[in-house]
Amino acid sequence: MHEGESASSHLNDFRSIVNQLKLVSIPFDDEVKALLFLCSLPDSWDNLVMA
Description:
Elements: H1 7-23, H2 30-39, H3 46-50
């Protein structure tokens, strides 16, 4: 996610990538998806990620 990009746009992009990986038999459980999503947020979201 880039600074200034909306969270909903980033989430939609993230879901699209996860779905594409699922189509080629690379599934992720919910915990891994949550961790990957949190790690993809920019530094300005650090306070939220730590909470």
